[in-house]
Design a protein that fits this description.
It is found in: Cell membrane. GO terms for molecular function: transmembrane transporter activity. InterPro entries: EmrB-like (IPR004638), MFS (IPR011701), MFS_dom (IPR020846), MFS_trans_sf (IPR036259), Sugar_transporter_CS (IPR005829). The protein is mainly alpha-helical. The chain has three domains: 183 residues, Up-down Bundle (Growth Hormone, Chain: A), CATH 1.20.1250; 55 residues, no CATH class; 200 residues, MFS general substrate transporter like domains (Growth Hormone, Chain: A). α3 packs antiparallel against α17, α15 runs antiparallel to α18 and α17 packs antiparallel against α18. It is globular. The chain starts with 14 loop residues before the first helix and ends with a helix. The N terminus and C terminus are likely disordered.
Protein backbone atom coordinates (compact mmCIF):
# COMPACT_ATOMS: atom_id res chain seq x y z
CA UNK A 1 0.00 0.00 0.00
CA UNK A 2 1.32 3.42 -0.96
CA UNK A 3 1.20 6.32 1.45
CA UNK A 4 2.27 9.77 0.36
CA UNK A 5 4.08 11.82 3.01
CA UNK A 6 3.93 15.55 3.54
CA UNK A 7 6.06 17.07 0.78
CA UNK A 8 5.95 20.80 1.30
CA UNK A 9 5.31 23.54 3.80
CA UNK A 10 1.81 25.03 3.34
CA UNK A 11 1.53 28.42 1.75
CA UNK A 12 -0.60 31.19 3.18
CA UNK A 13 -3.66 32.12 1.13
CA UNK A 14 -4.50 35.76 0.55
CA UNK A 15 -7.79 37.29 1.72
CA UNK A 16 -9.11 37.30 -1.86
CA UNK A 17 -8.19 33.65 -2.33
CA UNK A 18 -9.93 32.70 0.89
CA UNK A 19 -13.08 34.51 -0.22
CA UNK A 20 -13.14 32.63 -3.52
CA UNK A 21 -12.15 29.29 -2.06
CA UNK A 22 -14.56 26.35 -2.25
CA UNK A 23 -16.15 25.01 0.96
CA UNK A 24 -13.70 22.84 2.92
CA UNK A 25 -15.86 19.73 2.50
CA UNK A 26 -15.72 20.11 -1.29
CA UNK A 27 -11.94 20.54 -1.29
CA UNK A 28 -11.70 17.44 0.90
CA UNK A 29 -13.95 15.47 -1.47
CA UNK A 30 -11.97 16.41 -4.58
CA UNK A 31 -8.47 15.78 -3.29
CA UNK A 32 -9.43 12.56 -1.49
CA UNK A 33 -11.10 11.26 -4.65
CA UNK A 34 -7.88 11.93 -6.55
CA UNK A 35 -5.80 10.17 -3.91
CA UNK A 36 -8.24 7.25 -3.78
CA UNK A 37 -7.97 6.34 -7.47
CA UNK A 38 -4.18 6.66 -7.42
CA UNK A 39 -3.82 4.25 -4.50
CA UNK A 40 -6.57 2.00 -5.83
CA UNK A 41 -4.61 1.52 -9.04
CA UNK A 42 -1.69 -0.02 -7.17
CA UNK A 43 -3.77 -2.98 -6.04
CA UNK A 44 -6.79 -3.12 -8.36
CA UNK A 45 -4.87 -4.75 -11.22
CA UNK A 46 -3.58 -7.71 -9.17
CA UNK A 47 -6.79 -9.72 -9.37
CA UNK A 48 -7.12 -8.90 -13.09
CA UNK A 49 -3.62 -10.13 -13.99
CA UNK A 50 -4.60 -13.65 -15.16
CA UNK A 51 -7.36 -12.19 -17.34
CA UNK A 52 -4.92 -9.61 -18.75
CA UNK A 53 -2.49 -12.37 -19.60
CA UNK A 54 -5.15 -14.34 -21.44
CA UNK A 55 -6.56 -11.32 -23.22
CA UNK A 56 -3.26 -9.90 -24.49
CA UNK A 57 -1.03 -12.99 -24.55
CA UNK A 58 1.38 -11.75 -21.87
CA UNK A 59 4.20 -14.03 -20.75
CA UNK A 60 4.60 -15.12 -17.12
CA UNK A 61 7.55 -12.78 -16.67
CA UNK A 62 6.09 -9.99 -18.77
CA UNK A 63 3.04 -9.96 -16.51
CA UNK A 64 5.00 -8.32 -13.71
CA UNK A 65 5.61 -5.23 -15.85
CA UNK A 66 1.92 -4.41 -15.61
CA UNK A 67 2.65 -3.80 -11.92
CA UNK A 68 6.27 -2.64 -12.12
CA UNK A 69 5.78 -0.08 -14.88
CA UNK A 70 3.39 1.78 -12.59
CA UNK A 71 5.36 1.37 -9.37
CA UNK A 72 8.78 2.33 -10.78
CA UNK A 73 7.57 5.57 -12.36
CA UNK A 74 5.40 6.36 -9.34
CA UNK A 75 8.40 6.00 -7.03
CA UNK A 76 10.92 7.66 -9.34
CA UNK A 77 8.90 10.83 -9.94
CA UNK A 78 7.20 11.12 -6.53
CA UNK A 79 9.57 13.67 -4.97
CA UNK A 80 9.72 15.62 -8.22
CA UNK A 81 5.92 15.81 -8.24
CA UNK A 82 5.88 17.28 -4.75
CA UNK A 83 8.35 20.00 -5.66
CA UNK A 84 6.55 20.78 -8.90
CA UNK A 85 3.36 21.41 -6.94
CA UNK A 86 5.16 23.94 -4.73
CA UNK A 87 6.83 25.74 -7.64
CA UNK A 88 4.11 25.83 -10.28
CA UNK A 89 0.96 25.77 -8.18
CA UNK A 90 -0.82 22.96 -6.33
CA UNK A 91 -4.05 23.24 -8.32
CA UNK A 92 -2.25 23.37 -11.67
CA UNK A 93 -0.16 20.27 -10.88
CA UNK A 94 -3.17 18.44 -9.43
CA UNK A 95 -5.10 19.04 -12.67
CA UNK A 96 -2.11 18.09 -14.83
CA UNK A 97 -1.42 14.88 -12.92
CA UNK A 98 -5.07 13.84 -12.88
CA UNK A 99 -5.48 14.54 -16.60
CA UNK A 100 -2.38 12.49 -17.42
CA UNK A 101 -3.52 9.66 -15.16
CA UNK A 102 -7.03 9.63 -16.67
CA UNK A 103 -5.84 9.68 -20.29
CA UNK A 104 -3.35 6.88 -19.58
CA UNK A 105 -6.13 4.85 -17.92
CA UNK A 106 -8.22 5.18 -21.08
CA UNK A 107 -5.28 4.13 -23.24
CA UNK A 108 -4.59 1.12 -21.03
CA UNK A 109 -8.20 0.01 -21.05
CA UNK A 110 -8.24 0.12 -24.86
CA UNK A 111 -4.81 -1.53 -25.33
CA UNK A 112 -4.62 -4.24 -28.00
CA UNK A 113 -0.98 -5.26 -27.51
CA UNK A 114 1.09 -5.95 -24.37
CA UNK A 115 3.46 -3.04 -25.06
CA UNK A 116 0.53 -0.65 -25.27
CA UNK A 117 -0.73 -1.68 -21.85
CA UNK A 118 2.73 -1.45 -20.29
CA UNK A 119 3.28 1.99 -21.84
CA UNK A 120 -0.07 3.17 -20.50
CA UNK A 121 0.78 1.90 -17.01
CA UNK A 122 4.10 3.76 -17.20
CA UNK A 123 2.35 7.03 -18.00
CA UNK A 124 -0.21 6.32 -15.28
CA UNK A 125 2.67 6.08 -12.79
CA UNK A 126 4.01 9.48 -13.86
CA UNK A 127 0.53 10.98 -13.52
CA UNK A 128 0.13 9.43 -10.08
CA UNK A 129 3.51 10.76 -8.95
CA UNK A 130 2.52 14.27 -10.05
CA UNK A 131 -1.00 14.07 -8.61
CA UNK A 132 -0.56 12.40 -5.24
CA UNK A 133 1.78 14.90 -3.50
CA UNK A 134 -0.43 17.75 -4.68
CA UNK A 135 -3.48 16.23 -2.96
CA UNK A 136 -1.88 16.56 0.45
CA UNK A 137 -0.38 20.00 -0.05
CA UNK A 138 -3.77 21.29 -1.23
CA UNK A 139 -5.26 20.03 2.04
CA UNK A 140 -2.57 21.69 4.14
CA UNK A 141 -3.12 25.03 2.39
CA UNK A 142 -6.92 24.80 2.60
CA UNK A 143 -7.27 24.02 6.32
CA UNK A 144 -5.83 26.14 9.15
CA UNK A 145 -3.20 24.62 11.40
CA UNK A 146 -4.63 22.78 14.36
CA UNK A 147 -7.49 20.29 14.81
CA UNK A 148 -9.09 21.08 11.43
CA UNK A 149 -5.93 20.30 9.50
CA UNK A 150 -5.17 17.25 11.63
CA UNK A 151 -8.64 15.89 10.95
CA UNK A 152 -8.27 16.59 7.23
CA UNK A 153 -4.94 14.77 7.02
CA UNK A 154 -6.35 11.84 9.01
CA UNK A 155 -9.24 11.60 6.55
CA UNK A 156 -6.82 11.75 3.61
CA UNK A 157 -4.74 8.94 5.15
CA UNK A 158 -7.81 6.79 5.79
CA UNK A 159 -9.00 7.27 2.19
CA UNK A 160 -5.59 6.18 0.90
CA UNK A 161 -5.64 3.10 3.11
CA UNK A 162 -9.18 2.38 1.93
CA UNK A 163 -8.10 2.55 -1.70
CA UNK A 164 -5.47 -0.08 -1.11
CA UNK A 165 -7.84 -2.19 0.97
CA UNK A 166 -10.71 -2.40 -1.53
CA UNK A 167 -8.53 -2.67 -4.64
CA UNK A 168 -8.70 -6.46 -4.78
CA UNK A 169 -12.47 -6.51 -4.34
CA UNK A 170 -13.09 -3.78 -6.93
CA UNK A 171 -10.77 -5.51 -9.38
CA UNK A 172 -12.54 -8.82 -8.82
CA UNK A 173 -16.01 -7.39 -9.38
CA UNK A 174 -15.03 -5.50 -12.53
CA UNK A 175 -13.12 -8.40 -14.03
CA UNK A 176 -15.82 -10.95 -13.18
CA UNK A 177 -18.84 -9.04 -14.46
CA UNK A 178 -17.38 -6.72 -17.11
CA UNK A 179 -13.79 -7.19 -18.29
CA UNK A 180 -10.23 -6.73 -17.08
CA UNK A 181 -10.24 -3.55 -19.15
CA UNK A 182 -12.62 -1.94 -16.69
CA UNK A 183 -10.08 -1.99 -13.86
CA UNK A 184 -8.47 0.81 -15.90
CA UNK A 185 -11.49 2.30 -17.65
CA UNK A 186 -13.28 2.89 -14.33
CA UNK A 187 -10.74 5.67 -13.70
CA UNK A 188 -11.97 7.62 -16.73
CA UNK A 189 -15.44 8.77 -15.58
CA UNK A 190 -14.25 9.24 -11.99
CA UNK A 191 -11.17 11.15 -13.13
CA UNK A 192 -13.21 13.33 -15.49
CA UNK A 193 -15.66 14.32 -12.74
CA UNK A 194 -12.87 15.15 -10.28
CA UNK A 195 -11.02 17.03 -13.01
CA UNK A 196 -14.04 19.24 -13.74
CA UNK A 197 -14.56 19.88 -10.02
CA UNK A 198 -10.88 20.75 -9.53
CA UNK A 199 -10.88 23.27 -12.40
CA UNK A 200 -14.06 24.93 -11.13
CA UNK A 201 -13.58 24.97 -7.37
CA UNK A 202 -10.00 24.47 -6.22
CA UNK A 203 -7.97 27.58 -5.36
CA UNK A 204 -4.43 27.99 -6.65
CA UNK A 205 -1.51 28.32 -4.22
CA UNK A 206 2.25 28.00 -4.47
CA UNK A 207 5.43 28.72 -2.55
CA UNK A 208 7.64 31.67 -3.34
CA UNK A 209 10.91 29.83 -3.60
CA UNK A 210 14.01 29.82 -5.74
CA UNK A 211 14.28 26.05 -5.78
CA UNK A 212 14.57 24.31 -9.11
CA UNK A 213 13.15 21.05 -10.34
CA UNK A 214 15.68 18.20 -10.51
CA UNK A 215 14.25 16.67 -13.68
CA UNK A 216 17.54 14.94 -14.63
CA UNK A 217 17.62 13.25 -11.24
CA UNK A 218 14.08 11.91 -11.58
CA UNK A 219 14.72 10.65 -15.11
CA UNK A 220 18.00 8.98 -14.17
CA UNK A 221 16.72 7.15 -11.09
CA UNK A 222 13.63 5.91 -12.94
CA UNK A 223 15.60 4.77 -15.99
CA UNK A 224 18.22 3.10 -13.81
CA UNK A 225 15.67 1.14 -11.83
CA UNK A 226 13.85 0.12 -14.99
CA UNK A 227 17.03 -1.16 -16.64
CA UNK A 228 18.08 -3.13 -13.58
CA UNK A 229 14.62 -4.67 -13.27
CA UNK A 230 14.62 -5.56 -16.98
CA UNK A 231 18.05 -7.17 -16.71
CA UNK A 232 16.91 -9.28 -13.76
CA UNK A 233 13.88 -10.48 -15.72
CA UNK A 234 16.07 -11.46 -18.67
CA UNK A 235 18.19 -13.78 -16.52
CA UNK A 236 15.37 -16.33 -16.35
CA UNK A 237 15.30 -16.96 -20.10
CA UNK A 238 18.89 -16.12 -21.07
CA UNK A 239 20.94 -16.77 -17.91
CA UNK A 240 23.07 -14.47 -15.77
CA UNK A 241 26.03 -14.57 -18.16
CA UNK A 242 24.10 -13.64 -21.30
CA UNK A 243 24.44 -10.27 -22.99
CA UNK A 244 20.64 -9.88 -22.89
CA UNK A 245 20.84 -9.81 -19.09
CA UNK A 246 24.26 -8.29 -18.42
CA UNK A 247 23.94 -5.31 -20.77
CA UNK A 248 20.76 -3.84 -19.20
CA UNK A 249 22.02 -4.69 -15.69
CA UNK A 250 25.33 -2.91 -16.32
CA UNK A 251 23.59 -0.01 -18.04
CA UNK A 252 21.16 0.31 -15.11
CA UNK A 253 24.01 0.43 -12.59
CA UNK A 254 25.83 3.06 -14.69
CA UNK A 255 22.69 5.18 -14.90
CA UNK A 256 22.14 4.90 -11.11
CA UNK A 257 25.79 5.92 -10.58
CA UNK A 258 25.16 8.91 -12.83
CA UNK A 259 22.11 9.73 -10.71
CA UNK A 260 24.28 9.81 -7.58
CA UNK A 261 26.82 12.03 -9.34
CA UNK A 262 24.10 14.43 -10.48
CA UNK A 263 22.59 14.58 -6.99
CA UNK A 264 25.98 15.34 -5.45
CA UNK A 265 26.40 18.38 -7.68
CA UNK A 266 22.83 19.64 -8.06
CA UNK A 267 21.91 22.91 -6.33
CA UNK A 268 18.45 21.57 -5.52
CA UNK A 269 18.85 17.77 -5.62
CA UNK A 270 15.89 15.44 -5.72
CA UNK A 271 17.59 13.29 -3.09
CA UNK A 272 20.05 15.31 -0.95
CA UNK A 273 22.83 12.83 -0.29
CA UNK A 274 23.91 14.69 2.84
CA UNK A 275 20.81 13.39 4.63
CA UNK A 276 22.18 9.85 4.38
CA UNK A 277 25.03 10.81 6.69
CA UNK A 278 22.41 10.60 9.45
CA UNK A 279 22.40 7.05 10.80
CA UNK A 280 18.68 7.17 11.38
CA UNK A 281 17.95 8.16 7.77
CA UNK A 282 20.37 5.79 6.04
CA UNK A 283 19.56 2.72 8.16
CA UNK A 284 15.80 3.29 8.02
CA UNK A 285 15.81 3.69 4.23
CA UNK A 286 17.97 0.58 3.75
CA UNK A 287 15.73 -1.45 6.05
CA UNK A 288 12.59 -0.17 4.31
CA UNK A 289 13.96 -0.98 0.86
CA UNK A 290 14.65 -4.58 1.89
CA UNK A 291 11.28 -4.90 3.62
CA UNK A 292 9.55 -3.50 0.52
CA UNK A 293 11.42 -5.95 -1.70
CA UNK A 294 10.05 -8.83 0.38
CA UNK A 295 6.53 -7.65 1.17
CA UNK A 296 5.40 -5.79 -1.95
CA UNK A 297 4.95 -8.89 -4.13
CA UNK A 298 2.64 -10.64 -1.64
CA UNK A 299 -0.54 -9.53 -3.45
CA UNK A 300 0.91 -10.37 -6.85
CA UNK A 301 1.71 -14.00 -6.05
CA UNK A 302 -1.38 -14.57 -3.92
CA UNK A 303 -3.61 -13.43 -6.77
CA UNK A 304 -1.87 -15.74 -9.25
CA UNK A 305 -2.02 -18.65 -6.82
CA UNK A 306 -5.71 -18.18 -6.01
CA UNK A 307 -6.76 -18.04 -9.67
CA UNK A 308 -4.19 -20.19 -11.49
CA UNK A 309 -3.86 -22.95 -8.88
CA UNK A 310 -7.01 -22.94 -6.75
CA UNK A 311 -9.23 -21.92 -9.71
CA UNK A 312 -10.84 -18.97 -7.91
CA UNK A 313 -12.83 -16.58 -10.04
CA UNK A 314 -11.63 -12.95 -10.03
CA UNK A 315 -14.49 -12.05 -7.66
CA UNK A 316 -13.68 -14.93 -5.29
CA UNK A 317 -10.02 -13.89 -5.29
CA UNK A 318 -10.93 -10.28 -4.52
CA UNK A 319 -13.23 -11.33 -1.66
CA UNK A 320 -10.60 -13.67 -0.25
CA UNK A 321 -8.14 -10.78 0.21
CA UNK A 322 -10.45 -8.57 2.28
CA UNK A 323 -9.11 -9.90 5.62
CA UNK A 324 -5.57 -9.22 4.41
CA UNK A 325 -6.44 -5.63 3.51
CA UNK A 326 -8.15 -5.05 6.84
CA UNK A 327 -5.11 -6.51 8.63
CA UNK A 328 -2.66 -4.10 7.04
CA UNK A 329 -4.97 -1.17 7.83
CA UNK A 330 -5.29 -2.42 11.42
CA UNK A 331 -1.52 -2.71 11.78
CA UNK A 332 -1.03 0.80 10.44
CA UNK A 333 -3.65 2.22 12.82
CA UNK A 334 -2.46 0.55 16.03
CA UNK A 335 1.26 1.12 15.38
CA UNK A 336 1.23 4.75 16.66
CA UNK A 337 -0.51 3.64 19.87
CA UNK A 338 1.96 0.84 20.41
CA UNK A 339 4.81 3.31 19.95
CA UNK A 340 3.59 5.08 23.09
CA UNK A 341 4.30 1.89 25.05
CA UNK A 342 7.45 0.58 23.37
CA UNK A 343 10.30 2.01 21.33
CA UNK A 344 9.93 2.29 17.57
CA UNK A 345 12.83 -0.04 16.84
CA UNK A 346 11.34 -2.94 18.81
CA UNK A 347 7.96 -2.47 17.14
CA UNK A 348 9.52 -2.39 13.67
CA UNK A 349 11.47 -5.58 14.35
CA UNK A 350 8.42 -7.26 15.87
CA UNK A 351 6.23 -6.36 12.91
CA UNK A 352 8.81 -7.65 10.42
CA UNK A 353 9.15 -10.92 12.36
CA UNK A 354 5.37 -11.43 12.23
CA UNK A 355 5.39 -10.80 8.50
CA UNK A 356 8.35 -13.14 7.97
CA UNK A 357 6.54 -15.94 9.84
CA UNK A 358 3.59 -15.43 7.53
CA UNK A 359 5.83 -15.62 4.46
CA UNK A 360 7.43 -18.86 5.63
CA UNK A 361 3.96 -20.31 6.21
CA UNK A 362 2.72 -19.01 2.86
CA UNK A 363 5.66 -20.67 1.15
CA UNK A 364 4.28 -24.11 2.06
CA UNK A 365 1.36 -23.66 -0.38
CA UNK A 366 0.57 -26.53 -2.71
CA UNK A 367 -1.91 -27.45 -5.42
CA UNK A 368 -4.43 -28.78 -2.87
CA UNK A 369 -4.38 -25.79 -0.53
CA UNK A 370 -7.40 -24.54 1.40
CA UNK A 371 -8.52 -20.98 2.01
CA UNK A 372 -8.22 -21.10 5.80
CA UNK A 373 -4.82 -22.78 5.95
CA UNK A 374 -3.17 -21.59 2.77
CA UNK A 375 -4.46 -18.06 2.12
CA UNK A 376 -6.21 -16.62 5.18
CA UNK A 377 -3.84 -17.54 8.03
CA UNK A 378 -0.47 -16.66 6.50
CA UNK A 379 -1.95 -13.69 4.63
CA UNK A 380 -3.18 -12.05 7.81
CA UNK A 381 0.25 -12.44 9.42
CA UNK A 382 2.06 -10.98 6.42
CA UNK A 383 -0.30 -8.02 6.11
CA UNK A 384 -0.49 -7.26 9.84
CA UNK A 385 3.29 -7.35 10.12
CA UNK A 386 3.66 -5.02 7.13
CA UNK A 387 1.30 -2.51 8.74
CA UNK A 388 3.15 -2.64 12.05
CA UNK A 389 6.58 -2.19 10.44
CA UNK A 390 6.15 0.81 8.15
CA UNK A 391 5.12 3.47 10.69
CA UNK A 392 7.95 2.99 13.25
CA UNK A 393 10.64 2.80 10.54
CA UNK A 394 9.35 6.04 9.02
CA UNK A 395 9.21 7.59 12.47
CA UNK A 396 12.85 6.75 13.16
CA UNK A 397 13.92 8.20 9.81
CA UNK A 398 12.12 11.51 10.31
CA UNK A 399 13.04 11.85 14.01
CA UNK A 400 16.72 12.15 13.15
CA UNK A 401 16.30 14.87 10.53
CA UNK A 402 16.11 18.63 10.83
CA UNK A 403 12.52 19.93 11.07
CA UNK A 404 12.91 21.62 7.69
CA UNK A 405 13.72 18.23 6.11
CA UNK A 406 10.88 16.23 7.69
CA UNK A 407 8.72 16.14 4.58
CA UNK A 408 11.65 15.28 2.32
CA UNK A 409 12.84 12.44 4.56
CA UNK A 410 9.31 11.07 4.77
CA UNK A 411 9.19 11.15 0.98
CA UNK A 412 12.51 9.31 0.77
CA UNK A 413 11.34 6.49 3.04
CA UNK A 414 8.23 6.00 0.94
CA UNK A 415 10.26 6.10 -2.27
CA UNK A 416 12.68 3.50 -0.85
CA UNK A 417 9.77 1.17 -0.09
CA UNK A 418 8.36 1.46 -3.61
CA UNK A 419 11.74 1.08 -5.30
CA UNK A 420 12.56 -1.94 -3.19
CA UNK A 421 9.17 -3.39 -4.05
CA UNK A 422 9.72 -2.97 -7.79
CA UNK A 423 13.15 -4.62 -7.74
CA UNK A 424 11.94 -7.32 -5.34
CA UNK A 425 9.06 -8.21 -7.64
CA UNK A 426 11.50 -8.58 -10.55
CA UNK A 427 13.79 -10.90 -8.57
CA UNK A 428 11.06 -13.01 -6.98
CA UNK A 429 9.11 -13.33 -10.25
CA UNK A 430 12.26 -14.53 -12.00
CA UNK A 431 12.90 -17.10 -9.25
CA UNK A 432 9.29 -18.31 -9.38
CA UNK A 433 9.34 -18.59 -13.18
CA UNK A 434 12.56 -20.64 -13.07
CA UNK A 435 10.99 -23.15 -10.69
CA UNK A 436 7.72 -23.28 -12.64
CA UNK A 437 9.58 -23.98 -15.89
CA UNK A 438 10.97 -27.19 -14.38
CA UNK A 439 7.57 -28.76 -13.74
CA UNK A 440 4.09 -29.14 -15.12
CA UNK A 441 0.57 -28.08 -14.21
CA UNK A 442 -0.84 -26.59 -11.02
CA UNK A 443 1.74 -28.29 -8.79
CA UNK A 444 4.60 -26.52 -10.58
CA UNK A 445 2.83 -23.18 -10.29
CA UNK A 446 2.25 -23.64 -6.57
CA UNK A 447 5.86 -24.72 -6.09
CA UNK A 448 7.16 -21.64 -7.92
CA UNK A 449 4.96 -19.21 -6.02
CA UNK A 450 5.87 -20.90 -2.74
CA UNK A 451 9.58 -20.57 -3.49
CA UNK A 452 9.08 -16.84 -4.10
CA UNK A 453 7.60 -16.46 -0.61
CA UNK A 454 10.42 -18.45 1.00
CA UNK A 455 13.07 -16.35 -0.74
CA UNK A 456 11.12 -13.25 0.25
CA UNK A 457 11.27 -14.36 3.89
CA UNK A 458 15.07 -14.56 3.61
CA UNK A 459 15.19 -11.01 2.21
CA UNK A 460 12.95 -9.87 5.06
CA UNK A 461 15.29 -11.56 7.51
CA UNK A 462 18.06 -9.37 6.10
CA UNK A 463 15.90 -6.33 6.80
CA UNK A 464 15.28 -7.54 10.37
CA UNK A 465 19.01 -7.99 11.00
CA UNK A 466 19.69 -4.52 9.63
CA UNK A 467 17.03 -3.06 11.92
CA UNK A 468 18.53 -4.80 14.95
CA UNK A 469 22.09 -3.76 14.16
CA UNK A 470 21.67 -0.28 12.71
CA UNK A 471 18.42 1.40 13.71
CA UNK A 472 18.69 3.77 16.71
CA UNK A 473 16.55 2.54 19.61
CA UNK A 474 15.91 5.54 21.82
CA UNK A 475 14.80 9.04 20.87
CA UNK A 476 18.01 10.36 22.36
CA UNK A 477 20.02 8.06 20.13
CA UNK A 478 18.14 9.32 17.09
CA UNK A 479 18.74 12.95 18.01
CA UNK A 480 22.49 12.38 18.34
CA UNK A 481 22.86 10.99 14.81
Amino acid sequence: MVRMPPIATPATLSTTERRKAAPPWLVMLLVCAGQFIVILDVSVVNVALPAMRTGLGLSELGLQWIVNAYVITFAGFMLLGGRAADLFGRKRIFVLGLALFTIASLAGGLAQEPWQLIAARTIQGVGAAVLSPATLTILTTSFPAGPARTKAIATWTAVGAGGGAVGGLVGGVLTEYLSWRWVLLINVPVGALVLIGAVLWLTESRQDTGRRLDVPGALLVTAGLGLVAYGIVQTETDGWTSAAALVPLAAGLVVLAAFIAVEARAKAPLMPLGLFRLRSVSSANAAMMLAGAAMFSMWYFLSLYAQNVLAYTPLEAGLSFIPHSLSIVLGSKIAPRLMNRMDAKSLAVGGAVISACGMVWQGTMDADGTYLGTILGPGILMALGAGLTATPVASIATSGADPADQGLVAGLINTSRQMGGALGLSVLSTIAASRIAGGHGRAALADGYGLAFHVGSVVLLGSILLMILALPRRQADVAQN
